[in-house]
Write a structure and sequence with these properties.
Blueprint (H helix, E strand, L loop, with lengths): L5 H15 L1 E2 L3 E2 L1 H16 L5 H16 L16 H22 L3 H21 L4 H34 L6 H23 L16 H14 L23 H18 L4 H20 L8 H22 L4 H8 L1
Antiparallel strand pairs: 1-2
């Protein structure tokens, strides 16, 4: 059914957003709901030429509409979240905008205004449930900026790889997404070393709860969004548990300085956020190669290639700590 009533479209977005934020035991997951609203802002800002300036102006206008400024002290513990969770929920919000954009049928400025009213009303409702609007607005602003940052980073990493490796160094698309997936595993491993007491003898069979599974989900979900079929096991063809760890060092050497310089320039310092940005970029480049009706390489080959590179570099990092890539390779050879 085609919706022609603009208020009905906004009502549908709100209904779907609340439905996706439901927790099976605790009712509405407020954090997920705010993440989704951040996704609404990120996606609708991309309708405009200066998208990231629109993000700023949107939050400024919401501040006026709410008659408040963001909370300046530390947010409560419940508001803290890993970037892979934020990315998932932000993408849910972005998809809600995309799914209704064609139905809207008029100028994007009006759509943008109506989305702001939706967010305003939702934050006011949360205040009635006991969450001060200054806190919820601060979390919304933080998540919006972080969601926009992850989107921009993934896009710009893809551009950098295409310009500096595919165009000039004659890399293949397989080299490109494999290198980014491997670097994502490296950064996630470094993050885990700083957060957990991780045994250096960890093996492939014991990495389920150590963060790389979440990182794989970021990459695979991004690839699916850009056209790779959902069907099929991404782990088909991976190395057995007793095989020596073997990251694609030759690709990692070639892309290391590009990645390091990019994150320095973009001022993205948290290693788990760097890992998510790399995983998103890897998923997009994988989709270029393995998506569509006539993929360059079948997804049955491309998927395990990316997941294998991520897993191997992750394991190598856990086993050898923060050694540089050359030292790590020497220990593994």
């Amino acid at each position: 059914m085609v919706l022609t009533n603009k208020a009905e479209i906004i009502g549908k977005i709100q209904e779907q957003m609340l439905d996706r934020a439901k927790h099976p035991r605790r009712g509405t997951d407020t954090r997920a709901l705010i993440h989704q609203m951040a996704g609404l802002i990120v996606e609708i800002s991309l309708f405009f030429d200066e998208a990231y300036e629109v993000v700023d102006s949107t939050l400024t206008k919401l501040s006026r509409m709410l008659h408040t400024t963001p909370w300046e002290s530390d947010l409560p513990i419940w508001a803290h979240v890993d970037p892979h969770v934020l990315d998932f929920n932000v993408e849910v919000g972005r998809q809600l905008i995309r799914s209704h954009a064609m139905t809207w049928g008029s100028c994007e400025y009006e759509f943008h205004e109506m989305v702001m009213y939706l967010i305003q009303n939702t934050l006011i409702s949360l205040e009635e449930d006991g969450i001060p609007r200054r806190e919820s607005f601060r979390l919304l602003a933080d998540c919006t900026y972080k969601g926009a940052m992850l989107e921009a980073a993934a896009h710009e990493l893809c551009d950098a790889i295409i310009e500096q490796k595919i165009s000039t160094s004659l890399w293949s698309l397989a080299d490109s997404f494999t290198s980014l997936a491997a670097m994502a595993g490296l950064y996630q491993g470094r993050y885990m070393l700083g957060e957990e007491d991780v045994a250096q003898t960890i093996t492939r069979s014991r990495i389920t709860n150590l963060g790389v599974e979440n990182l794989m989900a970021v990459m695979t979900q991004e690839a699916h969004r850009f056209g790779v079929p959902v069907a099929g096991d991404w782990r088909t063809g991976l190395a057995a548990n007793d095989c020596p760890v073997s990251p694609p060092f030759h690709l990692m050497f070639d892309v290391e300085s590009l990645v390091t310089n990019f994150f320095t320039s973009a001022k993205i310092e948290a290693e788990n956020e760097q890992a998510v940005a790399l995983a998103k970029a890897a998923g997009r480049l994988l989709a270029v190669m393995a998506g569509g009706d006539e993929p360059e390489v079948t997804p049955l080959i491309a998927k395990p290639l990316a997941v294998g590179a991520m897993t191997e570099s992750f394991l190598a990092t856990l086993q050898h700590g923060r050694e540089n890539l050359r030292e790590m390779q020497e220990h593994l050879d």
